[in-house]
């Protein structure tokens, strides 16, 4: 039996709990908060509260980064982070938000803009429209390989009519099909037919 240091209410504790630092002083969480606030009254505020709203210089941020390099979290801290990540709910971005994010970083608006040196084909394959085309092809085929009728995690969206010869059909869903890696390599249009042409010349 212990006596609360705030309100004087007696409370019964198990013997093994009294070994913990926060047990054996207060009868409830409310009294514990009051006692903690009284304890911290004469002390300076923690750094996180003192630096709130203050613009930090690059030199200060660099020193903080160096100080935290190699820091290891305790097992209880790691479990808390994992528990928080499991309980976090992720909602996919709507299409209008994806388009907005894409448009605000195109061309000279991007921080890594170098004057438009990206090849045209690479720009098309990295675009949002091309990613939506791939997802539409996979959704239509129900994520099933069309030549071997199997399902798996490795999926390729293949153009039935070649990407380079039919630019107007590059984003047509009807011109795409879902293939596995091996079936895709066996098609006549894989890598522009360069591999088969090379094998024939040997």
What does this structure look like?
- With 202 residues, the protein is mainly alpha-helical.
- Among the domains are: 2-39, no CATH class; 120-201, His-Me finger endonuclease fold.
- The chain has 9 helices and 4 strands, in the order E-E-H-H-H-H-H-H-H-E-E-H-H.
- The protein has helices spanning 29-39, 47-50, 58-68, 75-87, 95-103, 120-125, 128-140, 181-185, 194-201; strands at 2-3, 10-11, 156-159, 176-179.
- The strands form 2 sheets. Strands 1-2 form a two-stranded antiparallel sheet. A two-stranded antiparallel sheet has the order 3-4.
- Strand 1 and strand 2 form a beta hairpin.
- It is elongated, with a radius of gyration of 31 Å.
- It starts with a strand and ends with a helix.
- The mean pLDDT is 81.
In short:
The protein is mostly helical and 202 residues long.
Descriptive key words:
elongated, about 200 residues, two-stranded antiparallel sheet, 9 helices, mainly alpha, 4 strands, His-Me finger endonuclease fold, two-stranded antiparallel ribbon, about 5% strand
Compute the CA-based radius of gyration.
Answer: 31 Å
User: Could you tell me how far the N terminus lies from the C terminus, measured between alpha carbons in angstroms?
Assistant: 90 Å
Number of strands: 4
Q: What is the CATH C-level name of the domain at 120-201?
A: Alpha Beta
| CATH architecture assignment of the domain at 120-201 | 3-Layer(aba) Sandwich
Secondary-structure element pattern, one letter each:
EEHHHHHHHEEHH
- Number of helix segments? 9
Please give the share of residues in helix: 25-40%
Broad shape: elongated
Biggest sheet descriptor: 2 strands, antiparallel
CATH topology of the domain at 120-201: His-Me finger endonuclease fold
Average pLDDT taken over every residue: 81
Structural class label: mainly alpha
Strand order of the largest sheet: 1-2
Proportion of residues in extended strands: 5-15%
Low-confidence stretches at least 5 residues in length (pLDDT < 50)? Answer: none
């Amino acid at each position: 039996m212990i006596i609360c240091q705030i309100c004087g209410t007696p409370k019964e504790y198990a013997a093994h709990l009294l070994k913990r630092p926060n047990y054996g002083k207060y009868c409830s969480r409310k009294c514990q908060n009051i006692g903690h606030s009284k304890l911290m009254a004469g002390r300076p505020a923690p750094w996180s509260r003192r630096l709130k709203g203050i613009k930090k210089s690059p030199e200060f941020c660099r020193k903080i980064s160096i100080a935290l390099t190699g820091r290891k979290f305790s097992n209880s801290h790691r479990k808390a982070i994992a528990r928080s990540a499991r309980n976090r709910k992720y909602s996919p971005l709507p299409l209008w938000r994806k388009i907005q994010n894409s448009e605000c970083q195109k061309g000279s608006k991007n921080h890594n803009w170098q004057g438009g040196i990206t090849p045209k084909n690479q720009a098309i394959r990295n675009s949002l429209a091309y990613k939506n085309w791939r997802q539409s092809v996979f959704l239509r085929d129900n994520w099933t390989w069309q030549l071997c009728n199997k399902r798996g995690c490795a999926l390729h969206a293949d153009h039935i009519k070649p990407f380079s010869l039919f630019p107007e059909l590059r984003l047509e869903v009807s011109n795409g099909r879902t293939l596995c890696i091996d079936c895709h390599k066996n098609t006549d249009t894989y890598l522009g037919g360069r591999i088969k042409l090379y094998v024939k010349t040997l």
